[in-house]
């Protein structure tokens, strides 16, 4: 019995499966999705549509059309360049550029540059801006006037990239690197400046301390002068009267407490005079002696 190929269902199944797969691919190829922060460029047989496609679901003709997605969010591009400063010092500068694409100009950028716009447009513009800006400043000013250098680079990059639909948001200088000899010279200058500031601070402190000592001495001298001025002859006489008054009070108290008896001890002339004063007499008191027995 001859074998009939029409009775074998396997080829038909494979054929239908392949046909269904092709239909599925064609149907799937009819749709595209643009995510937030992106724009699409619709390409029809190699010709880009100048109207960018916004976020969402879109339709295209399979095989004939394709969609190219381009990012319009803020992006960063870093570059490093070696250039000469105004005083002919070799400077290696590294900068970072934050930028974004203008949504309306995305199709034109893709048509003229393609997806490699960073290497073809941004990188050369950065190199040129770095070299042009560095040549305007001395090596020392590149450090001291860092903000001015950054602003100059930013303005140059804006001017060069804006016509391409690339908007420069900010430029950051991440590093300046100089030759070893220049770095050593800067370090020596900074050290000398620090020593000078320290000496000035020490001198100012000594001056302040000297002024404080002078002020204190002047205040003490003024106080002594005022104190001397306050000692008048009347004040001295009053002090003498107060001393005499206190002496009379002491004598009066001694008289009031005396019992009228003269001590039996030997008295000197000075003591006799005191007791004579206490007794109100001007005569000398005869000393009392005790007879001594003789053998």
Quick overview of this protein structure:
This protein has about 300 residues and is an alpha+beta fold.
Written description of the protein model:
With 295 residues, the chain is an alpha+beta fold. Among the domains are: 5-71, no CATH class; 75-178, Band 7 domain (Tetrahydropterin Synthase, Chain A). Helix content is 52%, strand content 20%. The strands form three sheets. The protein has a three-stranded antiparallel sheet. A hairpin with a 5-residue loop joins strand 6 and strand 7. Mean pLDDT is 80; it is low at 266-295.
Supply the number of helical segments. Answer: 8
How does the overall form come out from the CA principal axes?
elongated
Low-confidence stretches: 266-295
- SSE pattern: HEEEEEEEHHHHEHHH
Which CATH architecture of one domain? 2-Layer Sandwich
Average pLDDT value?
80
Q: How are the strands ordered across the major sheet?
A: 3-2-5
Number of β-strand runs: 8
**What's the gyration radius in Å?**
56 Å
CATH topology tier name of one domain: Tetrahydropterin Synthase, Chain A
State the end-to-end distance: 196 Å
- The CATH first-level class of one domain comes to Alpha Beta
Helix content: 40-55%
Query: What is the strand content?
Result: 15-25%
Output the CATH homologous superfamily of one domain.
Band 7 domain
Q: Which structural class should the secondary elements be placed in? A: alpha+beta
**Assembly classification:** single chain
Strand count, sense and barrel status of the largest sheet are: 3 strands, antiparallel
């Amino acid at each position: 019995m001859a074998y009939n190929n029409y009775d074998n269902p396997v080829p038909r199944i494979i054929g239908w499966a392949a046909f269904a797969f092709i239909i599925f691919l064609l149907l799937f190829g009819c749709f595209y999705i643009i995510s937030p922060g992106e724009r699409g460029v619709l390409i029809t047989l190699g010709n880009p549509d100048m109207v960018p496609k916004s976020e969402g679901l879109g339709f295209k003709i399979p095989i004939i059309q394709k969609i190219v997605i381009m990012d319009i969010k803020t992006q960063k591009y870093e570059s490093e360049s070696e250039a000469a400063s105004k005083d002919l010092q070799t400077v290696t500068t590294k900068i970072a550029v934050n930028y974004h694409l203008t949504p309306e100009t995305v199709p034109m950028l893709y048509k003229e540059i393609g997806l490699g716009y960073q290497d073809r447009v941004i990188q050369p513009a950065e190199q040129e801006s770095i070299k042009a800006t560095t040549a305007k400043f001395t090596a020392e000013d590149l450090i001291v006037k860092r903000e001015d250098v950054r602003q100059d680079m930013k303005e140059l990059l804006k001017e060069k990239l804006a016509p391409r639909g690339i908007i420069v948001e900010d430029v950051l200088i991440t590093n300046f690197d100089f030759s070893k000899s220049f770095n050593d010279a800067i370090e020596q200058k900074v050290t000398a400046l620090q020593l000078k500031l320290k000496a000035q601070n020490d001198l100012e402190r000594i001056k302040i301390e000297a002024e404080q000592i002078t002020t204190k001495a002047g205040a003490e001298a003024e106080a002594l002068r005022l104190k001397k001025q306050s000692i008048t002859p009347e004040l001295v006489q009053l002090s003498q009267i107060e001393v005499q008054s206190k002496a009379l009070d002491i004598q009066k108290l001694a008289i009031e407490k005396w019992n009228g008896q003269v001590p039996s001890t030997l008295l000197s002339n000075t003591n006799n005079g005191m007791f004579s004063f206490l007794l109100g007499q001007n005569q000398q008191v005869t000393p009392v002696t005790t007879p001594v027995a003789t053998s």
